[in-house]
Amino acid sequence: MDNSEIEKAIPAITVGIVEYVANSVVKKTILKKPTGNINAYSFDNGEGWAERTTPFDNYLQIIEGNADIVINGVSHTLQMGESIVIPAHESISIKPNDRFKMIVTVIKSAYE
Fold first, then answer.
1. In degrees rounded to 5, what are phi and psi of residue 12?
2. Which class for 19: exposed (0-12), middle (13-18), buried (19 or more C-beta within 10 A)?
3. How much helix, strand and coil, in percent to the nearest 5, is found in the chain?
4. pLDDT > 50? residue 103
5. CATH no. for 14-107
């Protein structure tokens, strides 16, 4: 897994930032700051995320393929180009329908 940031001030093809690897989930860091980060992920067929929670809001965008995003037990099928906000402290799991890629933006901020 390569966690170094992509080159700044250089155009990139979004879907090409991260490649598929057989039987794996691959993460590529686009930008990492104390206030949040942006990562690209590729999920091979059959790979997903088990249920988890995050202390921060997450913006998830499908950039290739499609997947079922389950938030607090409610499933949302997202297609390429669609996105969803995962609220802080909510449970999320990802169930792929085939291999797919996504961008996740995490906003780290205080909650009242």
1. -140, 150
2. exposed
3. 5, 55, 45
4. yes
5. 2.60.120.10
The answer to whether 108 and 35 have CB atoms below 8 angstroms apart is yes
Residue-wise DSSP of 17-71: SS---TT-EEEEEEEEETTEEEEEEEE-TT--EEEEE-SSEEEEEEEESEEEEEE
- Condensed to tens digits (0 to 9), the pLDDT of residues 12-36 reads 899 999 999 999 999 999 999 999 9
Q: What residues does each domain of the chain span?
A: 14-107
pLDDT of residue 110: 63
Q: What is the pLDDT of residue 1?
A: 45
The reported pLDDT for the residue numbered 111 is 55
What are the angstrom distances between the C-alpha of 111 and each of 32, 54, 56, 68, 75? 21, 13, 9, 28, 26
Per-residue tokens: 101: 């890629």
